[in-house]
Write a structure and sequence with these properties.
Helix content is about 75%, strand content about 0%. It is an all-alpha fold and about 450 residues long. A hairpin with a 2-residue loop joins strand 1 and strand 2. Helix 10 crosses helix 12, helix 11 packs antiparallel against helix 12 and helix 11 runs antiparallel to helix 13. The longest helix is centred in the last third of the chain and has 43 residues, at about 395-439. It starts with 19 loop residues before the first helix and ends with a helix.
Length: about 450
């Protein structure tokens, strides 16, 4: 009991104190570790190939991936409302509750025989799809959000490789079956998750100076969301298409990386996942985290377009060189991953954060991230369904490498359109304010 007679709670700790830099550094480390632990309940099953298993003539693993992605997609559409209206209290309990559901789904996945266990991938995906918005809500709207957000965003690059390495290590060294690997991987991450959720709850709300620089971040009701979309519809549409393209190929690389490595002659090498993803994480962190040095939000917003465009160019050129035998598989998987994440990560960290600050809107980033994410997963599912339903007989390496080249051309064109649209929109708003002031 506290002095006022209220029951003390694990999830209502005393907030840490310090200057903006100290709080930002603490927040960056804490959210990185928290989301890395969350990822331990998500992607470890992708290290299994389930060779020879089919359901009604379709690849069993592809159906598992589709089922989990369907859960993510439903979560993203639901999250447009839920995350945009999320309040500050009780978030730690929400993280643990949602993660517990995802972990229990892996238990039933292992216990219940195929094909009936496919349902539990959907159940696993839905709560996990909600967690990004909950975690990001702790850090948005701060002067240091660019760095914190970059750290949080690279956690799922690092975590993707790290979790797969842990899963592959468990399978190879403890003779754990492909069906039990996800549950035992979750067991490895469960204890640390409890600690980091306790620590994340110690992050204080943005201070007055943060609000002055980045606007107040408040829940957005339906009317607020509709007003925002109407105001920026052409630019938002381009951004959502860009993000959809990036999500399709990021998910393909993430979910079927094991198959691609196998097709290229690399088998039983779990260290490759961490070897390729760790340098990508470091480079992305430096590129996006350094944007915290740019105080002018609109300038940072435009620069994020440049970074996205460079990502498309890098991914496209590397894939072209790989197809023509001028780049080795390890370098290609690393550099094409870097290019795709240069597109993908800004949307999950600085892009919408700086957009809200640039155009002086109250609201929250969660709404925009989940709006883009929902369509991103529609695109990913569409590609997966198409490949299976129409029996497209390309191996994953050919399908992925050729697709990335087409993606890069379309994505670069959309990025240029978005840059011009928002630049023109900002100038028009400035002129309107000047005109209103004169009147």
């Amino acid at each position: 009991m506290d002095k006022s007679g209220n029951t003390m709670s694990l999830f209502k700790p005393t907030y840490i104190k310090g200057n903006s830099f100290q709080i930002g550094l603490y927040a960056a480390i804490t959210v990185f570790l928290t989301y890395t632990m969350v990822f331990g309940f998500r992607k470890s099953f992708t290290i299994a190939t389930f060779d020879g298993m089919t359901i009604a003539g379709y690849s069993y693993k592809t159906i598992l991936v589709i089922s989990q992605m369907l859960g993510y997609m439903l979560a993203k559409f639901y999250g447009i409302k839920y995350i945009s209206e999320l309040k500050r209290h009780g978030r730690g309990k929400i993280i643990l509750f949602l993660t517990s559901i995802s972990w229990l789904s892996w238990l039933f996945f292992a216990l219940i025989p195929a094909p009936f266990n496919i349902l539990f991938l959907l159940i696993n995906g839905f709560p996990l799809g909600m967690l990004w918005g909950v975690v990001f809500s702790y850090v948005e709207g701060r002067r240091s959000t660019d760095f914190i957000g970059a750290t949080l965003a690279v956690s799922f690059i690092f975590a993707s490789g790290f979790v797969k390495t842990v899963g592959a290590w468990l399978m190879l060294n403890f003779n754990i079956s492909e069906f039990w690997v996800p549950f035992f991987t979750g067991l490895v991450f469960a204890g640390p998750l409890l600690l980091f959720v306790y620590l994340i709850e110690k992050i204080p709300a943005p201070d007055d100076e943060d609000v002055a620089y980045r606007m107040n971040r408040i829940p957005m009701l339906a009317a607020d969301r509709k007003k925002f979309i109407r105001m920026f519809l052409p630019g938002l549409s381009a951004c959502i298409l860009i993000y959809t393209f990036a999500t399709i190929f990021r998910d393909m690389r993430d979910n079927f990386g094991a198959e691609m490595w196998k097709e290229m002659g690399f088998f039983d090498k779990p260290e490759l996942f961490a070897k390729t993803e760790t340098p990508i994480s470091i480079i992305i962190l430096i590129l996006i985290g350094s944007m915290v040095l740019i105080k002018d939000s609109f300038r940072a917003f435009l620069l994020s377009h440049v970074l996205i465009g460079m990502g498309f160019v890098l991914a496209g050129i590397c894939s072209f060189l790989f197809i023509n035998g001028a780049m080795t598989p390890v370098w290609w998987m690393t550099l094409v991953g870097l290019g795709l994440y240069m597109v993908y990560i800004p949307f999950n960290s600085v892009f919408f954060e700086r957009m809200i600050a640039s155009f002086k809107h109250t609201g929250n980033v969660g709404f925009l991230i989940y709006l883009a994410d929902s369509f991103g997963y529609v695109g990913s599912l569409g590609v997966m369904f198409s490949k299976e339903i129409f029996k497209i007989q390309l191996n994953w390496v050919n399908f992925f490498s050729n697709g990335v080249i087409l993606l890069s051309l379309a994505g670069l064109a959309l990025t240029i359109f978005s840059f011009i649209y928002f630049y023109t929109k900002q100038k028009a708003l400035i002129l309107d304010r000047i005109s209103s002031g004169i009147k």
